[in-house]
Every structure is written in structure tokens, then in C-alpha cells.
Amino acid sequence: MNDFQLIESPVLSRSGGGRAGELRPDESALINGWSDALLLRVNSRGQVVVSSDSRLVFGVTTELGSEPVRGAVFLGLREGRHVWAVRVTSLAGTLSELRMLGGALDDVDAGLLTGSVAALNWHDHAGFSAIDGAPTEPTMSGWSRISKTTGHEEFPRTDPAVICLVHDGANHVLLARQPTWPSHRFSILAGFVEAGESLETCVIREIKEEVGIDVHGVHYLGSQPWPFPRSLMLGFAAIGNPADGLRYADGEIAEAVWFSKDEVREALALGDWASMVDAPLLLPGSNSIARGMLESWVG
Questions:
Q1: What is the pTM of this model?
Q2: Do 276 and 221 belong to one domain?
Q3: Angle, nearest 10°, between helix axes 289-298 and 261-270?
Q4: Full residue range of the structural domain in which residue 226 is found
């Protein structure tokens, strides 16, 4: 029980097409591939057009011009064809977004959509250099930006966050809810990594700050990108003592409860937060690494 592992790869960690990073600086290859490339349009809410069976609907890049356009991001390959993403102001058709759609996509399209959302979110907030405040221009087919004043190059930012399943080494797990959540909605504890902090130290600190208990036996489970706007969730498990008193010191937690394995298993069977079931415990959806961690723990 102490050293359980993830049963399956987290939904948004899947990627089967290949990012083809070696092509990013190759302008000739990108221009040649543009004429047959697929285009993924993403609006400011992270939504894309989907088919009736919840598949990504791609356009063609030549609708934008004969060569790669400024602001487009090269995502990699899909069945041998180049794939690019662009931010658009509006979309026509049936729309969905990554948090709802991720589990319905195959490995290739899941990786493409996750990468597009992450990269475009970064571009939205990286128009000026963090060094000198000068305007920046996208380069490397959307995977870096250059200061127009100094030439300083910046790359897409990812914010690491730990998410930790705290259990008692036997049959109980500690779940919590934020103050804005309904009384029956619970999840695993999580928090952002601070500067100069190791992941394991962050786990111990965050658990102590959020619920007031000490944990040990911290071990890594797996990771999942969570580009809302640009996080990487790093999953851990740790052991705590249910006899220790819970304290909500930093105000981020309204309530934390030790649930039994049977209670968690029953809640998993009911669905997720979107369920309309009237139940004392509802858990995150399948697109979250949190659900995969709980399923692995009860399994």
C-alpha cells in the first residue's frame, strides 16, 4: 500500500505524434510542409471545433497564406503531416475545450491539443521581454520569442506544481475542498513549487501549510501538463497520521476529511464533479491526474 504506482498514464500526458523539435528552426522544411499542413484554431477560452464524435476538426494552413504566418505555433506531426496552431477570436461550429475533451482524444490529438493550449497561453502573456520590457517577436516556429531591443531570447514558461495523495499507509486518504467548492466536492492537496525548493520539500511544506500535519515517505508517481494557464502537475504520495489534528492555516482549505477506501471507491463509481448525483463525496474528472491517483490508490 505504501509504494503504489499509477495504473495508467494521466490523460493529458499522452502524446503519440512526435513534436519534431528538429524542424522548428528549419525554415525551408516548414515552408515545404506548410502547403499540406493541418491547422488547429484555438480561441481565447481554449476552445476548438470538434466533430459529432468529439474529435478535433482541423483546417488547412493554406487558408492563412502560402507560408507560415506570424504567431502560428508548429506542434509537430500527425500521420506525417505538419500541424500548426493559431489563436483566433471566434470559431464556428461545435466547441469544446481540453478539460472536457482530453479523455475522448487519441494519444496524438491529446498531445497536439495540450501543446497548443500551453504554447498559445504563453504567447498571450509574453509580448514584452521580462528583462527589459521591450516588445518581443515570436521565432523558432512559435517556440521562443526575441526582444526587439536586445535580442534576448525567452522560451515558453511552465510553472511546476505538486499534487500529493496523503494516505495513512493503510485504508484512509486525506481529501480536502476549497472554500468556494460545494460541501461534497473534494480532491487531493496541491500547491506551487517555490523558488529554490525541491519537489519533495514542497510536498512537505504545502501539506503542513494547508492542513497542518507532517507527512513522510514522499515518493513520485507521475506528471501531467495542466496548461491553465501553464502548469505542470507533479504527482506524489505521502503518509500522514489521521490522529494528528488538522489545521487550515493559510486559508486555502475550508475542510479536510480522512475518507476510507470504500468511500472513495463508491465516489469514483458515481462519476465526477460534473455529476448531478446527490452524494456526500464527488471527485475530480478523468482529465485530472488527481482522479488517476485516487483510482490507483484504491486499486
A1: 0.92
A2: yes
A3: 130
A4: 159-298
